[in-house]
Automatic annotation (TrEMBL):
Pfam family, one: MaoC_dehydratas
GO cellular component labels: fatty acid synthase complex
Sequence ranges assigned to domain MaoC-like in this UniProt record: 21-104
Domain of life of the source: Bacteria
InterPro entries: Fatty_acid_synthase, HotDog_dom_sf, MaoC-like_dom
A molecular function GO annotation: fatty acid synthase activity
Gene3D superfamilies for the chain: Hotdog Thioesterase (3.10.129.10)
CDD domains: SAV4209_like
Name of this protein: (3R)-hydroxyacyl-ACP dehydratase subunit HadB
PANTHER family xref list: (3R)-HYDROXYACYL-ACP DEHYDRATASE SUBUNIT HADB (PTHR43841:SF3), 3-HYDROXYACYL-THIOESTER DEHYDRATASE HTDX-RELATED (PTHR43841)
Length: 138
């Protein structure tokens, strides 16, 4: 967690969030929690009929993991903006790592803020989601 008067510099990397492999249970629990019961994420027969080898993770699950990355670094109340681009599919068994680095430090509305580059990567280093976030520093 960022502390008051902590020195932050452009290029600094925020602590990564490393997750266990994606499982069918992970997908079922997220479907229940989010209300997103799209069968492409939980029904192997449906996924195969759609041309996929198996079910795969919800994009919003990966975005939720990026939310965890950010709120492990600063309190949720300090998050100002957050946007992502979905670049690839997160498959069963993928071990996702979320990370970010400081792109810019600036002042806005009387607050010291940083713009972060954020992303999820699988165990092969392939970026699945890329985006940016702006957070207010304490």
């Amino acid at each position: 967690m960022v502390e008051q008067n902590m020195v932050i510099n452009v290029g600094d990397v925020i602590p990564e969030l490393k997750l266990p492999p994606v499982t069918r249970t992970t997908l079922a629990l997220f479907a229940g929690a989010s209300g997103d019961h799209n069968p492409i994420h939980v029904d192997i027969d449906f996924a195969r009929k759609a041309g996929m080898p198996d079910v795969f993770a919800h994009g919003m699950l990966s975005m939720a993991w990026l939310g965890r990355l950010l709120t492990a670094w600063v309190p949720q109340s300090q998050l100002r903006t957050w946007s992502v681009r979905f670049l690839g599919i997160t498959h069963l068994g993928d071990r996702v790592t979320c990370g970010g680095r400081v792109l810019e430090i600036f002042e806005e509305n009387g607050e010291r803020r940083v713009k972060l580059e954020i992303q999820t990567r699988n165990q092969e280093g392939e970026v699945k989601i890329a985006g940016e976030a702006v957070v207010c520093l304490p």
